Amino acid sequence: MTEAQDSQIFHAEAVDADTVLAKAAGPEPVDTVIIGAGFAGLGAAIQLARSGERSFVVVERGADVGGTWRDNVYPGVACDIPSQLYSFSFRPRNDWTHFYAPGAEILDYLQEAAREEGILPHLRFSSEVLALDWDHTSMTWTVVTTRDTYRCRWVVLATGRLSEKRIPDVPGLASFAGPVFHSSEWPHDLDLAGKRVGLVGSGASAVQILPRMAAVADEIVLFQRSAAYIIPRDDRAYTEAEKATWREEPGSLATLRTRMFWDAEAGFAARIGATGPLAALRDRALRHLEAQIPDPALRRALTPDYEAGCKRVLLSDDYYPALMHKWVRLEQSALTAVEGGRVTAASGAAYELDALILATGFHSTRPPIARRIRGRDGHTLDAAWSKGMVAHNSTTVAGFPNLFVIDGPNASLGHNSAVHMIESQIAYILEALWYLRSRDVPAFDVRPERQAAYVAEIDRMAEATVWLTGGCRSWYVDERSRRLTLLWPDTASAFRERLARFDPADYDAGAIAHG
């Protein structure tokens, strides 16, 4: 899906390179630049505005807010965290239609938040960041985008982990005779009725896409490199009586959210290998597989060869039944070659197809924007993360003064709501800004030894988790260092407790100008 096809709150025409260069000579001064307008960026903007701050902009390369929920519009897209939990605690919604919200409903929620919280005047759409450079003389960041240039004291990097699509390196892929696209770029006018479709991948997006495609396509080949653990989704529509109660008794909604949060927290025990909870998770998934796939051969092909929880545990009630259709074929190997309309799998099997859908995930552990960010010594953030993403308190990075990262190193979860984690980081950032401004500190940088200690602690916590011991390769783990760099290896409540207080002793406000 192109930017022009997105539903829009605001649209700005792109400018040519000469205009960008001209504007670089006179950057617009602002206190804070927030990069990204998904949950993290909008949440930070809303809380800044609520605190009385007005000198900030939110730069977003897309044409609307919403992040992953703006980009992903494939059939069946929905959240796998309960609606009441996958929303801001400071903006509860009493009219979610389902236990698990459809993607379009989440996008509407974020658009509504931007409007009602007065964020629209601060948004700068169609603004991709080209360069982000620290100036040690003025102790400011210069942010160059495809539309404008800004000079600011603070930067909040909120691009998320599901924004840079991963395209498999398959010989001949670009020459495929029919439509070929990533699942996050679903064509709005696509019609696959009567077509032969290849679906590459068997993760969270593929599990939602397959049942919808199976209802319209003549033939589907699903390319599966490794099987997933899948448990029942058990989604349902909320009743009008429930929604009426939440409207009339707001406290009941807060109580429900709290209960959902602690129910989800209980799922962490399986991730640290606790025998009972891990066995229960594994058995629940395998019972679901056995109940829905009666064919022993197909059931074996869909049985994971690693421990439950090592990769993302998926939720679906209709994925397995879709694989039972006679026109759906499971190919137990990766796509390896494309020639015209003919594709070949690692097994040697070849298929004639009319369309290829790449449900192949995202660059989660190596964000490309890191190559465009230069800190105190002129080195890029990508270089600082050459052995995997690192940060202190998952939020600040040594050598990059006045820069905050949300939903970055070890700030995601495998068992609870990402929004809770985002809110924890936003609160930490606001406290840091209050402290620094109240003492007129122009710049600060995390002490390298404090960051190193935090990273070492993370590594110790991660050692025994299923993400490192479960026998799989996942997007949670850095491919270079084999460190767990995406997930926080503890509970969401422990993360909030860890970030509950900004400790100035962790930071150095001296000698920064000489960096």
Gist of the model:
This protein has 515 residues and is of the alpha/beta class. The chain has helices spanning 17-24, 39-50, 68-71, 103-116, 204-214, 240-248, 250-265, 268-271, 275-292, 296-301, 319-323, 381-384, 418-438, 448-462, 466-469, 492-498; strands at residues 28-35, 56-59, 123-124, 129-135, 140-145, 149-157, 180-182, 196-200, 219-223, 230-231, 314-315, 328-331, 335-339, 342-345, 350-352, 355-358, 373-374, 403-405, 445-446, 507-508. The model is unreliable at 1-24 and 511-515 (pLDDT under 50).
Describe the structure.
- The protein has 515 residues and is an alpha/beta fold.
- The protein is globular.
- The chain has 16 helices and 20 strands.
- The strands form five sheets. Strands 1, 2, 3, 4, 5, 6, 17 and 18 form an eight-stranded mixed beta sheet that branches. Strands 7-16-8-9-12 form a five-stranded parallel beta sheet, with helices on one face.
- The chain is 31% helix and 16% strand.
- The chain has helices spanning 17-24, 39-50, 68-71, 103-116, 204-214, 240-248, 250-265, 268-271, 275-292, 296-301, 319-323, 381-384, 418-438, 448-462, 466-469, 492-498; strands at 28-35, 56-59, 123-124, 129-135, 140-145, 149-157, 180-182, 196-200, 219-223, 230-231, 314-315, 328-331, 335-339, 342-345, 350-352, 355-358, 373-374, 403-405, 445-446, 507-508.
